[in-house]
Amino acid sequence: MNERITVRQMNTVRPVVFNPAVGFVASQFGKPAFDRRLSDKILAAHNHAYAIGDVGLAAQLMAQLERTEEAEREAYRRKSSGSFGSYSPRQSSAVAHGRLWQAYVDARNAYNALSLQAGAPSARVVRAATEMKRCYAKWALA
C-alpha cells in the first residue's frame, strides 16, 4: 500500500479518498518562498475592496485588521513577558498602510472626477494630480 502517487495522478484520484499530507504536497510542488501573516492577507483584501469601490467591505476588513493586529500585539506581549515596551514596526504597520492606501484611492478618485469634468479649472486638476502623486509616494514608501 506504499504506492507513490505523482502530481499527474492526483487529478484522477477522488478527493474523498485521497488526502495528501503536507510533506507530499511540498515534495511535488515545492515549498512557498514565504508565508504571509494573516494581517498581510487581510490588508491585501482591504486594499482591493477599497480600490474597486466596495467601501462597506473595506471598512469591515479594516476593523478585522485592527482586531488581528491587536491580537498579534497581545500575543507578542505575553510571549515577551512585557520585557519590551514597544512593538515591532513591521508588525504594527498594516493598519497604517491600509489608511495610506485609502488616502491614495480617495485622491485618485478626486483627480479622475476632476479630469473628466468639462470645464474644470486646470489649476484644480494639477493640484489634484499632485495630491494623488504625493499620496501614492507616501503609500509606496511606507
Structure description:
With 142 residues, the protein is mainly α. The protein has one domain. The chain contains 6 helices and no strands. The protein has helices at residues 7-10, 22-29, 38-51, 55-80, 94-116, 122-141. Helix 3 runs antiparallel to helix 4, helix 3 (38-51) packs parallel to helix 5 and helix 5 runs antiparallel to helix 6. The longest helix has 26 residues, at 55-80. It is elongated and about 60 Å long.
Task: Supply the key terms.
single chain; mainly alpha; 67% helix; 0% strand
Describe the structure concisely:
By secondary structure, this protein is an all-alpha fold. It has helices at 7-10, 22-29, 38-51, 55-80, 94-116, 122-141.
Blueprint of the fold:
Elements: H1 7-10, H2 22-29, H3 38-51, H4 55-80, H5 94-116, H6 122-141
Report the end-to-end length measured between terminal Cα atoms: 53 Å
The sequence of SSEs as H and E is HHHHHH
What's the tally of helices?
A: 6
Let me know the largest β-sheet.
none
Q: Segments where pLDDT lies below 50 for 5+ residues?
A: 9-17
Determine the fraction of residues in helical runs and give it as a percent range.
Answer: 55-70%
Helix and strand content put the structural class at: mainly alpha
Number of beta strands: 0
User: What general form does the structure show?
Assistant: elongated
Mean pLDDT: 77
- What is the domain total for the residues? 1
Q: What percentage of the residues does DSSP assign to strands (E)? A: under 5%
Rg over alpha carbons: 23 Å
